[in-house]
C-alpha cells in the first residue's frame, strides 16, 4: 500500500468529521452547502497529492492539513455570502453561532467540536496561539451571554419541570 493509498484511506475516515464541522460552521445553513464545502476541501487535498504522488503533510498531520484546506475554502466561499436558513425552530445556540464572526466561530468549533489543541488551531487558521485564545475567549463570552436568563420572580410558583406536564 503506497502513500497515496494511505492518504485516501485516512481521508475517507476523516470525512464524517469534516462534514460535521462544515455543518456547524454554517450554523443552520443548508446541509447541501456544507457538503459542497466539504467536498471542495477534499478535492483540493486530493489535487495537491496526485501530481506529486507524495503526501502534502506528514502522515500524522493529514487531519490538520485537511481541516486547514477546508477552512481556507470555507473562508473564501463564506465571505461571498453563504445561504442561511435560520428559523425559530433552531436552538438558541445555533442562532448564537450564526451571529459570531466567522473567525471566532471556526476557532470555537475546531477546539470544542473537533478537539484540536490551540497550537493545531493556530496552524489550521494561519494565526498564532494568542490570536486563537483571543478568538476563543470572545466566542465563549458571546455564547455564555445567551445563557443569561432572567431570574424568576420570588412570588412565582415553582414547578419542578417548568415546561412539562403530565396530561391524562
Number of helical regions: 7
CATH topology: Butyryl-CoA Dehydrogenase, subunit A, domain 3
Distance, first to last CA: 64 Å
Report the uncertain regions: 51-56
Mean pLDDT, to the nearest integer, reads: 76
- Strand residue content: under 5%
Q: Secondary-structure element order, as H and E?
A: HHHHHHH
- How many domains is the backbone divided into? 1
Q: What is the C-level CATH assignment?
A: Mainly Alpha
Gyration radius over CA: 20 Å
Q: Write down how many β-strands occur, each being a DSSP E stretch of 2 or more residues.
A: 0
Question: Can you give the helix content as a percent range?
Answer: 55-70%
Sketch the major β-sheet.
none
Structural class: mainly alpha
Instruction: Please tell me what the overall shape is.
Output: globular
Per CATH, the architecture is Up-down Bundle
CATH homologous superfamily heading: PhyR, sigma-like (SL) domain
Give a structural overview:
This protein has 168 residues and is mainly alpha-helical. It has one domain (3-146): Butyryl-CoA Dehydrogenase, subunit A, domain 3. The protein has 7 helices and no strands. Helix 3 (62-79) crosses helix 6 and helix 4 (92-99) packs across helix 7 (129-146). The longest helix is centred in the first third of the chain and has 24 residues, at 3-26. The radius of gyration is 20 Å and the shape is globular. The N and C termini lie far apart (64 Å).
Amino acid at each position: 500500500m503506497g502513500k497515496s493509498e494511505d492518504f485516501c484511506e485516512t481521508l475517507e475516515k476523516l470525512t464524517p468529521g469534516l462534514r460535521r464541522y462544515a455543518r456547524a460552521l454554517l450554523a443552520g445553513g443548508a446541509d447541501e452547502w456544507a457538503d459542497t464545502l466539504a467536498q471542495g476541501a477534499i478535492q483540493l487535498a486530493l489535487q495537491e497529492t496526485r501530481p506529486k504522488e507524495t503526501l502534502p503533510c506528514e502522515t500524522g498531520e493529514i487531519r490538520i492539513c485537511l481541516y486547514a484546506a477546508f477552512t481556507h475554502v470555507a473562508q473564501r466561499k463564506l465571505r461571498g455570502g453563504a445561504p442561511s436558513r435560520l428559523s425559530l425552530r433552531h436552538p438558541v445556540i445555533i442562532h448564537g453561532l450564526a451571529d459570531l464572526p466567522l473567525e471566532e466561530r471556526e476557532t470555537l468549533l475546531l477546539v470544542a467540536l473537533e478537539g484540536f489543541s490551540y497550537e493545531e488551531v493556530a496552524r489550521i487558521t494561519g494565526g498564532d496561539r494568542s490570536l486563537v485564545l483571543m478568538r476563543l475567549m470572545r466566542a465563549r463570552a458571546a455564547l455564555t451571554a445567551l445563557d443569561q436568563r432572567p431570574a424568576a420572580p420570588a412570588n412565582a410558583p415553582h414547578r419542578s419541570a417548568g415546561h412539562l406536564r403530565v396530561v391524562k
